[in-house]
Amino acid sequence: MKQKEFSSYNKIGKNTVISESCIIGHPNSKDLVAKVKTAGVIIGDNCVIRSGTVIYSGSKLGNNVTTGHNALIREGTNIGDDCLIGTNTVIENNCTIGNGTRLQTGVYVPTNTQIGKNVFIGPHTVMTNDPTLGRVRKLYGPTIEDNVSIGANCTILPKVKICENAIVGAGSVVTKDVEKNSVVFGNPARPRGKSDEKIKKWLAQ
Question: Of residues 55, 124, 127, 172, which has the active-site annotation?
């Protein structure tokens, strides 16, 4: 089965490979009902888009981006260069992901989330953006600054800011802002040290 393109306005870069069963330029629900041609998708050079991936119209991917199978990238999302979007990862609309960031398998990124450069997010981490649990329609995604590392199976609550160079241990529930250069873990996540000390220990192993 070949990939399906809804829009004739997609722009695909040089040496980019799009596998079978992908949908490139999927319209949002309003445009789908109206049956109008949309802005399309911009995908940079040397990207690999694996089978089952769906990328909505209005999204932009930089150079050297790789997706796993069945990734979903919604409209208005901008992904920088040299990024990895893991298998079954979902990125909702109007998100920003900086250069060199790696989202592992099954990560969920909600609407209005900002993720910086060189961030690592472990498998099945879930970010949230609705502080009222659906009662008031105001969505506030978290902000993840540059060089942050987040372990597997974490939960990041709405409006939370994880500052530069912080490390979040696996399984943590992050309910408050995380300071620069800090290590946090637990439920709720609490400060446990400094990230530079942790990195030194890793390098010494």
Answer: 124
